[in-house]
Specification:
The chain is of the alpha/beta class. The chain contains 12 helices and 10 strands. The structure holds 4'-deoxy-4'-aminopyridoxal-5'-phosphate (PMP). The site of 4'-deoxy-4'-aminopyridoxal-5'-phosphate has 19 residues, from helix 7.
Amino acid sequence: MSYRNGIIETIGNTPLIKLKRASEETGCTILGKAEFMNPGQSVKDRAALFIIRDALNAGSLNPGGTVVEGTAGNTGIGLTLVGNALGLKTVIVIPETQSDEKKQMLRLAGAELIEVPAVPYKNANNYVKYSGRLAEELARTEPNGAIWANQFDNVANRQGHIETTAQEIWRDLDGKVDGFICAVGTGGTLAGVSMGLKEHNPDIVIGLADPMGAALYNFYKHGELKAEGSSITEGIGQGRITANLEGAQIDEAYQIPDAEALPVVFDLLSEEGLCLGGSSGINVAGAIRLAKELGPGHTIVTVLCDYGTRYQSRLFNPEFLREKGLPVPAWLDHAEAAAP
Ligand code: PMP
């Protein structure tokens, strides 16, 4: 008999999927870790579980307590699903610019959702700082207490990737991995996988795939936190060195414009049946760049972060793409024309 004891046991152990076109184009084996197959359909289920488990173990979070977090959506979905399974409440603060699909999922799952204007981190009303203040207040007023998940600076986030994501990659490839690359939101995935893999083999090349509008490419390349341009991708693009990123070794960095990443997302769906969000496009485009740098014959892993239906009204909406001056694939235009 084989079964999982609740959704918590279904988080992680996601398969590595060989990406056909990216592999053919580069002569490398490019593998995507299918994080969209987690129960909350994103990589953030891992961080959510580790943050909640860590707080419960430390005694800072009690049964019936409340978890407060500022999130672009995916961490909130993970926290809410794990929270439901463990009898916890969730209060989620989200910038109003995030996709409606993520907000609807949060409401459906039972989170209390607070939408705030999207303002930079240095502003006191930024969603992250807002959620921290709210957590302090609720810790005083909620009968069973409250905690701030604080995914950016709570290293239980990257610990999840050190203990699970990195070990799964190493195990599934029998250690035959040459490179790993992904984008940064909190940095939990990139730093955690870097630390976990380098403990096995320090020669594995770790790459950052940075969207436009983020400051980390310039930091890792030139030592200066400097951003330029913008991106329609959600959940990634960092302007500072979070606690999760501190001490992690990053060997290569690439800046990936949307015009390079979005065709990758569209082709993965239309040619390989992989329905993914925009950050996965940045990641796979980054893996292609790293593969070209390392040369043919290498094995490179990246992350397929979340499921594409979460962005149907944006990334897969010809009108939205045209508004942003981005190319619309012919098949997507056709789908619109054929709709009743
Ligand atoms: N892609 C998506 C869609 C995300 O929501 C996130 C997390 N915000 C990431 C990538 C980046 O993951 P991390 O926070 O581990 O850097």
